[in-house]
Design brief:
By secondary structure, this protein is an alpha/beta fold. It folds into two domains: about 5-60 and about 155-340, 3-Layer(aba) Sandwich (QueA-like); about 65-135, Thrombin, subunit H (Beta Barrel). It is built from eight helices and 18 strands. The strands form three sheets. It has a ten-stranded mixed β-sheet. A six-stranded antiparallel β-sheet has the order 5-6-7-10-9-8, covered by helices on one side.
């Protein structure tokens, strides 16, 4: 299975730079593994859900961790704070090889360095993290959105149910939900539950190996309640449908129930751990009966996951149909609902 098996051409004008003006008005392509396809709007999703279905969402909250700092020469560096290594020192993502002093704002000195042992770039600063990002932080929009994030993105690039700080990218399938949509689905008997997976650089790091199975995912932190674990077991025994919102929710559920995780703690009714599960075709799903997801980048790990659930050929077909029907792609784009036939 090669990387090019997951490549497709996309017209640039179908890359969504902004979301729809109102959540719930995105297009939704509904399909199943037998090949049936329907085109509706997202707020009509209830027409394809059943009483007793359980929808599981990722309630991680995106932090405004994108910073634009200045070198002493006046040149700018656009970077993302990835994770705190120790107090005041962060792993960062940025282009270029610059090492040295930078300014955050006009008076906050920081220092960019390269950790040769761990092959990562770092930045150190004295002010508290919360103070820095609240004053200077921007939302970490994906690099294909070639504009500076603004105040509108602080709302647009966050799910309405985001609760726990920790992500450096949005779990974008959830961006389509409004409280009205959730309330309407609950009235129909659909149940809602939450897990937390903090989206790190592992989710969006490109696949570099030509052989798909050789790609290694980076660990990401998750939390799942023990009551939800028991509820999922009951659902599977009763053959009721479980539908994940997004690939991050999928990796959490399938990683936990296939023991592809490292346990960090089990207390106060929650299990916390990390998972580096990479889901690609041949993976045997244990939990999912359905998946709500956006249209993903070519050769990306989320697209590979979708192909594992729907099938490679069916995924290619659906993506081509979406292109022909002017669907909008990627983080701010339209969505799919995939369910078992």
């Amino acid at each position: 299975m090669k990387k090019n098996d997951f490549f497709f051409d996309l017209p640039l004008d179908q890359i969504a730079i902004r979301p729809q003006n109102k959540r719930g008005l995105s297009k939704l392509l509904v399909t199943n593994k037998s090949g049936k396809i329907d085109h509706i709007l997202f707020h009509q999703i209830g027409d394809f859900l059943n009483k007793g279905d359980m929808i599981i969402m990722n309630d991680s909250k995106v932090m405004p961790v994108r910073l634009i700092v200045r070198k002493p020469s006046g040149g700018k560096i656009d970077l993302i704070l990835v994770r705190e290594i120790n107090q005041g020192k962060w792993e960062i993502l940025c282009k270029g090889s610059y090492k040295g002093k930078v300014l955050i704002g006009n008076e906050n000195e920081a220092f960019i360095d390269y950790d040769e042992k761990n092959l990562i770039k770092t930045m150190s600063f004295e002010k508290p993290f919360d103070e820095i990002v609240s004053r200077y932080g921007l939302m970490p929009l994906p690099p294909y959105i070639k504009r500076i994030p603004d105040e509108r993105d602080k709302l647009d690039y966050q799910t309405i149910y985001a609760k726990h700080d920790g992500s450096i990218a949005a779990p974008t399938a959830g961006l389509h939900f409004t409280q009205q949509i959730i309330d309407d689905l609950k009235m129909r008997g659909v149940e809602f539950e939450f897990i937390t997976l903090h989206v790190g650089k592992g989710t969006f790091m490109p696949v570099k190996s030509q052989e798909i199975s050789s790609h290694k995912m980076l660990e990401e932190h998750f939390e799942i309640k023990t009551t939800l674990i028991e509820k999922i077991k009951d659902y599977k025994n009763e053959k009721r449908r479980i539908i994940a919102v997004g690939t991050t929710t999928t990796r959490t559920l399938e990683g936990f129930f296939s023991d592809n995780y490292k346990l960090l703690s089990s207390k106060n009714g929650s299990i916390r751990g990390t998972t580096d599960l990479f889901i690609y075709p041949t993976f045997k799903f244990q939990i999912l009966n359905g998946l709500i997801t956006n249209f993903h980048l070519p050769c990306s790990t989320p697209l590979v996951l979708v192909s594992a659930f729907l099938g490679i050929e069916q995924t290619r077909r659906v993506y081509q149909i979406a292109i022909e029907n002017d669907y909008r792609f990627f983080s701010y784009g339209d969505a799919m609902l995939i369910y078992e036939a």
